[in-house]
Amino acid sequence: GIGEGIARAYAREGARVWVTDLDDSRGREVAAALGEHARWRRLDVRVEAEWEAALDACLAKDGRLDVLVNNAGITGFETGPVPHDPEHATLEAWRDVHRTNLDGVFLGCKHAIRTMRPRGAGAIVNVSSRSGIVGIPGAAAYASSKAAIRNHTKTVALYCAEQGLAIRCNSLH
User: Fold this and answer.
1) Which is it for strands 17-21 and 121-127: parallel, antiparallel or unpaired?
2) pLDDT tier for residue 108 given thresholds of 50, 70 and 90
3) Nearest to residue 73, comparing CAs of 100, 106, 112?
4) In sequence order, what DSSP letters do the residues of 41-77 get, joined into one string?
């Protein structure tokens, strides 16, 4: 939903868009609907080698990366109701949410900076949530991951400025 909306908005503005997802059929469908300026690539945001390959493919095909939107995220409730409160959540459930939501953003930022560095400019947009500001008692991992995205975004922005790079990094809540 959100990622597709973002891709559609960029495409309407004339941008070349790379649609990435774990769902091959849905990803291909969205890319096809966006027309000739959209490309499809499967990407598991939790896997560093897939980030490297995806951004290398972007460089090879388009010659540059101007904007990266880190939008992939899960709540932990995708397979049904399970405890996600601070007392009853399992460590495995906690880690699953953080691997997608936070590790994915870390890897996306890391490899976007690498890809944008030669030009010295670009923009990274990290999708956080108001839940990262106010918390959610029944979704501790989700709220924690979104709060960490908010702070990591600030770290990335300061790092890029310190490096003399005109790479902006902002988060949406």
Assistant:
1) unpaired
2) very high
3) 100
4) EE--TT-HHHHHHHHHHHHHHHS---EEEE-----S-
Torsion of CA 48, 51, 95, 70, to 10 degrees: 150
AA identity, residue 127: V
Helix axis angle, 24-34 to 2-12, nearest 10°: 20
Q: What is the pTM assigned to this prediction?
A: 0.95
Supply the residues annotated as catalytic: 142
Q: How far apart are CA 144 and CA 89, in angstroms?
A: 13
Place of tokens 């923009």: 123
Q: How far is CA 107 from CA 43, 88, 103, 126, 158, in A?
A: 12, 29, 6, 12, 17
What's the confidence (pLDDT) of residue 85?
Answer: 95
104 in Cβ contact with 158 (< 8 Å): no
Q: Give the tens place of pLDDT for each residue, 60-91.
A: 999 999 999 999 999 999 988 899 999 999 99
